[in-house]
Amino acid sequence: MCGIVGAVAQRDVVPILLEGLRRLEYRGYDSAGIVVIDGEGKSLQRVRRRGKITELERGLSGTVLRGRTGIAHTRWATHGEPSETNAHPHICRQAIALVHNGIIENHEKLRTQQRANGFEFTSDTDTEVIVHQIYRYFERYDDLLVAVQNALKDLKGAYALGVISTKDPSYLVAARRGSPLVIGIGIGEHFIASDVAALLPVTQRFIFLEEGDIAELTRERVTIYNVEGEQVERPIRESELHADAVERGDFRHYMLKEIFEQSRAITETLEGRISGHRVLDEVFGPKAGEVLDEIQSVLILACGTSYHAGMVGHYWLESIANVSCRVEIASEFRYRCPVVTPHTLVVTLSQSGETADTIAALKEAKRAGFGPSLSICNVPESSLVREADLVLMTRAGPEIGVASTKAFTTQLTALLLLVIVLGRRHKLTAGEEARLVSQLLLLPSRVEQALQLSPAIEELSEQFAEIRNALFLGRGAHYPIAMEGALKLKEISYIHAEAYPAGELKHGPLALVDADMPVIAVAPNDQILEKLKSNLQEVRARGGRLYVFADHAAEVKSGPGITVIEIPSVEDETAPIIYTIPLQLLAYHAAVIKGTDVDQPRNLAKSVTVE
Ligand code: G6P
Question: N or C: lower Cβ tally within 10 Å for the chain?
């Protein structure tokens, strides 16, 4: 996946495109490029660089690039290594330029045909075949829109595209299928981008293109055609986000800012969703009550960090709500033959709402006969939200750091709301619901308390500067929290980390434990605390170095080979949310000490809109 941005305006669009790219950099940062049309000479002027947007800016500093129409791109490489020649925009015969997010599956076949027709390739990307294909039709019809409409019929795969041509320098064609694309509405100017965040400095009015839509943009108007080629109207929506919602402020990294935003983010997740001691059904949608009445089981589909949230949801749904649940990695689910159970709520969990595997898994679940569906998501109007019957927005606000933090804890909070509304249809009494609701309302202040551990954890993380491996242990709903802690550490510090349910240690991973293997454990004061303590003894007996995040009342004390960070006491059900915080902080501080790129770790991207 990649980030694309484009503009047609009366002013120079280069600063708008560069700011848009900066705001989209979380989507990929292997290379970046920009092309504008110089209105006078009608020529395409392009600058591309390998690396981040700062490299592109450096490349631009020696040039006088100006133009009123342009497109730009930040890349996360799929086909072809990160390099200047593989960077977008791609140009065909100095007439057409294109940026693309997605994957073209039949690129090899098209490439062979195009070579036979005399087209030369300058990159190893799948994208270059699109620009050549458009050019072929452009030669025939002399109309960019018609050329794009025809070329897209020849493509298999996913795309969001922005295309410009020298024929008309105030004209841009955009299209989406399988990858996100929004149109920004300005006054006498129009824009495209992969995400609204890219355009917030210039507009707050957006059209969200639908699957198969093709749009033509001029300064004065936007015309949209659906997959059948019919002209259609799409609503203009006002974004509630402000441009500074994606600023880093005084924080050293976005990730740290987002960790510290968790208390406020959880407050937002809960806002207006509870009345008295009761969670409102309607927060899942107008007819949610009737839909939820029918539900007998839950199937959660998600990837990455969201999958870990789903695993916690699994524990909660079965233990609190008495509703059977399974949770599956979306990229696996989409290719297996699941046994369909009736009245199963399919819950997709996703920060972005654009993860290709999760979208495909939802489609597969629907095709197989599961349903209805619920999307728990952080991005309104995203593909998963639009595919779902019921929706619960997590309202974490934009998350820029590639390693997910506040998106995760707000997903957990949203899942607890779901657990409660389903639970009261099964075994949860009004009294138990009221108790859970008070726990939820206490969460923001408990998160604040946990955040105060940051200096102590920063000090502790010094001991992680030289390590190469780490083991994380947890039990029950804290096993997925241990997994999330391990994922955070490996994502941003590149320390190899694995998580195990603590009871599983003796069945293999104990062989790895020695004085060089730090073992990080989460030890809330729950029913299986004593079992966990025995597991920790097994580590100590083998000379392992233990770091334990333990409830104040758990009576696990620091001593030789064991460092304990005390966590303020918290009720069992909400403990997974609170124990996440110190693990995020540990990963963050360890990465800072190691000097890695915390917000944009190597090889990763925040939103994976390709398979
Ligand atoms: C990428 C991100 C992860 C994220 C995963 C799922 O791999 O780097 O942080 O957890 O996608 O993303 P989603 O938007 O569906 O939650």
Answer: C
Beta-strand ranges (E) seen in 432-502 are 469-474, 496-501
Indicate whether residue 396 lines ligand 1 (CB < 6 A). Answer: no
pLDDT digits (tens, 9 = 90+) for 331-356: 999 888 889 999 999 999 999 999 99
In a domain, 39, yes or no: yes
Cα(37)–Cα(207) distance, integer angstroms: 24
User: Ligand 1: does its nearest atom lie under 6 Å from the Cβ of 609?
Assistant: no
- Let me know: does 571 contact 546? Beta carbons within 8 Å: no
Nearest CA to ligand 1 atom 4: 304
Task: Calculate the CA 358 to chain-centre distance.
Answer: 11
> What is the tally of structural domains in the chain?
3
Per residue in 239-249, pLDDT (tens digit) is 888 877 778 88
Q: Helix, strand, coil % (nearest 5) of the chain?
A: 40, 25, 35
Distances in Å between the alpha carbon of 474 and those of 403, 505, 519, 522?
Answer: 21, 10, 11, 5
d(CA 331, CA 145): 35
The closest of 33, 35, 66, 16 to 164, measured between CA atoms, is: 35
Domain of 348 in residue numbering reads as 247-427
Per the annotation, the verdict on 2 as an active-site residue is: yes
Domain finish residue from 236, 257, 276 = 236
| 212 domain-assigned | yes
Q: Are residues 385 and 525 in the same domain?
A: no
Mutate which of 195, 608, 610 for ligand 1 pocket (most atoms within 8 A of beta carbon): 608
Assigned token pair, 181? 């694309």
**Residue 495, H or E segment:** none
